[in-house]
Amino acid sequence: MLPRSNRKPVWPIAVGAMALMALSACSGGGAVGGTKASSGAKPTTLTIAVNSAPASFDPSRADNGNGLYPMQLAYEPLIKQTGNGTYSPGLASSWRYLGEGNTRFQLTIRSGVKFSDGSPVTAQAVADSINYFTTGFGPTTGNLAGVKVTASGADTVTLTSKTANPEFPLLLSQNFLAGDIISPAGLKAKSSLTSKPSGAGPYILDSGATVSGEHYTFTANPAYYDKSSVHYKKVVIKVIADQTAELSALQTGQVDLMFGSAQQMPTAKSAGLTVTNTGPTQWNGVFLLDREGTKTKALASPQVRQALNYAVDRSGIAKAVYGALGSATGQPTTKGFDEYVPSLANYYTYDPAKAKQLLAQAGYPNGFSMPLTYTSFDPQTKQMVQAIAQQWAAIGVKVKLVSSASYPAMSTNMYRAGALSVAWNGQPMFLQVGVLWSAKGGLNPYHATDASFLSKFAQASKASQSQLAAQMADVAAVAVKQAYTVPVVQIDAVVFSHGVNGIPSQLPGAHLNVVELHP
Predict the structure, then answer these.
(1) Topology agreement, domain 23-273+498-516 and domain 281-492
(2) What Rg, from alpha-carbon coordinates, does the chain have?
(3) Phi, psi of 518 (to 5 degrees)
């Protein structure tokens, strides 16, 4: 059984990757990438540029931003999420939920597959790897908190959760790392996984041709079971921190593919590059963190939170800040997910008069003050929050903007602020609630909860796959109407490329599956 896809395509990202990562690839010719193919021949080397080095090659500690790309090369996931959003077999040949309630999930492991070290992929190896993953500290490990994994026979693995989890297929795909199975030898030498992956993927890290923090070279795995999916002899991941430098490299033939920005689109088009808009992958706005009024009392009132929504000119901000890549939205997710409700995107019109009326009804006729922290390293987020602050000032709400120059700084500052602004990848409602609105959610520093909302969510999480989308859409409607957030804009991803095929017209979240790229 191949369960439903969650979006067309589905997002891949969980807690840790909150910004669209710059990505690029080239067919060689530089100091790192090897040699270009002769005229008429297909290139044999692909070089992928990322704007930061991978944190680790250990799935339980790797980041799911830039860190996904080397993991896609070195590890084979249990379930593959394709560019069109469907699921297909990886190390698991089939999978299904057992019984009702979405608490037990069973996989059949593909036979005859070997890890890159030559050892066989067995059901026990899969179970041991996932159980190890749940003990880690990576950004996606919390998605399997409390899950126990057992093996039975040579090819059957069962995951059991104390609470309903309707997204096991997604969580075991290449974009969430839990399904990246580590070999038994790798588990015996856990400390070495930081710098040396140990998987069953299509490529093997060439340590001799790798300089940590600069470039990482992978060569084709001769033992890989699906040789038709290996499109290059060599793949190099090269760290290029500056997006302008990436575009320059693309223009000069050093790089074949990168994520770009609206501001760069005219230059890319005039240079003859292929510009592909892959549709919305992120949304940006304001997370209203202090919903119980711990430090900003006014935010405990739904009327106040609704007023903040009515006071924002979404269309104006989307156009001014994001240009052709931005579209207004009032819903905290992106188009393409089954749970996305088109009517909710326009639930809050721009109506400052209504906003003032709601503030007065809530007991704040003269407004109030609150701190808002934002990711200042993202210039578009900075522009957006400045515009929002001006529009809120017009209804009497004074905002103290607190700059966060890094994600660690943001994590610290959000405990001092009533609100947070950070670009956020679209995701299924099940994962959205877990991160944002559950008591222990990573972006719920004040542990604000709504018992009625969480009860509705818990019931929806038990729904059958055929009913899940409709019930989660009802959950999404509550989040919008109770104004847990102030969504402002959906953000399209744009890919600039030259000579690279396999780029989907819709991205699964903010990430390409680099294994699917081909000459």
Answers:
(1) no
(2) 23
(3) -150, 160
- Angle subtended by helix axes 352-361 and 302-310, to nearest 10: 170
Q: In this predicted model, what pLDDT tens digit does every residue of 374-387 receive, in sequence order?
A: 998 888 999 999 99
How is the chain split into domains, by residue range?
23-273+498-516, 281-492
Phi, psi of 384, rounded to the nearest 5 degrees: -65, -50
Q: What is the pTM of this model?
A: 0.85
407 close to 423: Cβ distance less than 8 angstroms: no
**Integer Cα distance of 273 and 323 in angstroms:** 20
HSE, CB side, 13 Å, CA atoms: give it for residue 431: 27
User: Distance (Å, rounded) from C-alpha 184 to C-alpha 195?
Assistant: 17
CATH number listed for the domain at residues 23-273+498-516? 3.40.190.10
Instruction: Give 128-140 pLDDT, tens digit per residue.
Output: 999 999 999 888 8
Cis preceding linkage at 9, omega within 30: yes
Element (H, E) at 371: strand 368-375
What DSSP line would sit under 122-136, residue for residue?
-HHHHHHHHHHHTTS
Spell out the alpha helix ranges (H) of 318-397: 352-361, 379-393
Q: Does domain 281-492 have CATH number 3.10.105.10?
A: yes
